[in-house]
Amino acid sequence: MSEHDLRVGLVGAGRMGADHAVRVHERTSGARLVAVADPDLERAQQVADGTGARAAQDPYDVITASDVDALVIASPGAVHEPLLLAAIERGVPVLCEKPLTPDAQSSLRVLEAEEKRGQRLIQVGFMRRFDAEYVELKRLLGSGELGRALLLHCAHRNPFSPPGFTSQMMVYDSVVHEFDTTRWLLDDEIAAVSVRAPRSSEQSPEGLLDPQLVTIETAGGVLVDVEIFVNCGFGYQVRCEAVAERGTALIGADGGPLVHRNKQWGGAVTADFRDRFGAAFDREFQRWADAARRGEVDGEGASAWDGYAAAVACEAGVRAQATGDRTEVELVDRPDFYAKS
Ligand code: ISE
């Protein structure tokens, strides 16, 4: 610890917040956790215990604290807007778990506030941008070695869904990652979304359309199919196969040893998203903290604009799911403030 450490306040001490508290405390150099807020004070205290941070019930006690230099927001998306607006008003950098906000209108209000402040402060926690395999795929596609990308085949499988998870949340909470990775990998905008579903798995909770097949069309003419299956039962898998003019590249095909024995072969599947993306989260946090200490935002991270674009795609996805129609995605004009660097 040093006096130059970035003093981080955490808002939200649920599953993700607890994970991020350990990440800041143990694995982010030059950063230190100083305060944790959660409406459940006991939960905040448990997460703060052993880190040297204090616990609070009111998020604004942390957001406005003079000893907090930067914020991690890991509370449910529905409450992000006022928290983000307060952080922007104070002028502190924020790493906000996805979604930026749950809908396009509230995301736009956040963009406007950030632009009015005249300083980019928000990074949205789309951690796949920091995953070694995704980074390599982006490099490969950008290098032109495989020619132009034509198709992406994506599979996003979770072992089981949390209680209360709905068919809409499969778009808002899960496919939102593919909306972001599509835009980021291809450097392209999403033009339209369609959703279809086969019969549902008998392993999925009653009433959940699971799996679903989401088709994304990009403005540049790439087609992306996403299988979202949140009760696949066998583990956590996120795959993406890019089909380009002169080759294909597959990521997420489960690393580790492929073992042959007893007339069988096989390997391990990651158990949950923390196993699969733990290193990506670590890299995301380290880069975010380093940039915040320099008074900058990390150019590799997702901006508030990216969070807004994902929210618009999610809204279109949920409309497409309800109507069965191909649904166009329309963004407002991109402000110069969010111009690509
Ligand atoms: C969860 O919120 C995540 O962000 C995970 O990365 C994703 O795989 C899962 O489907 C979401 O529910």
Structure description:
α7 packs across α9 (304-323). The protein has two domains: 6-128 and 279-307, Rossmann fold, CATH 3.40.50.720; 132-271, Dihydrodipicolinate Reductase, domain 2 (2-Layer Sandwich). It is globular, with a radius of gyration of 20 Å. The protein has helices spanning 15-27, 41-48, 59-63, 80-90, 104-117, 132-143, 167-186, 273-293, 304-323, and strands spanning 6-11, 31-37, 54-56, 70-73, 94-96, 122-124, 149-157, 190-196, 212-218, 223-229, 237-244, 247-251, 259-261, 264-266, 327-328. The protein is α/β, with parallel strands linked by helices. The structure holds (2R,3S,4s,5R,6S)-2,3,4,5,6-pentahydroxycyclohexanone. (2R,3S,4s,5R,6S)-2,3,4,5,6-pentahydroxycyclohexanone (ISE) binds next to α7.
Do you know the CATH topology of the largest domain? Rossmann fold
In CATH, the homologous superfamily of the largest domain goes by the name NAD(P)-binding Rossmann-like Domain
Using the CA coordinates, give the radius of gyration.
Answer: 20 Å
User: What ligands are attached or bound here?
Assistant: (2R,3S,4s,5R,6S)-2,3,4,5,6-pentahydroxycyclohexanone
Major sheet description: 7 strands, mixed
Q: What is the SS-derived class?
A: alpha/beta
CATH class of the largest domain: Alpha Beta
Provide the spatial order of strands within the biggest beta sheet: 12-11-7-10-9-8-15
Q: Which of globular, elongated, flat, extended, rod-shaped describes the shape? A: globular
Strand residue percentage: 15-25%
Q: What are the segments in which pLDDT stays under 50 over at least 5 consecutive residues?
A: none
Distance between the termini: 33 Å
Helix percent band: 25-40%
Q: H/E order of the elements? A: EHEHEHEHEHEHEHEEEEEEEHHE
Function: Involved in the oxidation of myo-inositol (MI) to 2-keto-myo-inositol (2KMI or 2-inosose).
Family: Belongs to the Gfo/Idh/MocA family.
Subunit structure: Homotetramer.
InterPro entries: Gfo-Idh-MocA_inositol_DH (IPR050424), Gfo/Idh/MocA-like_OxRdtase_N (IPR000683), GFO_IDH_MocA-like_dom (IPR055170), MI/DCI_dehydrogenase (IPR023794), NAD(P)-bd_dom_sf (IPR036291)
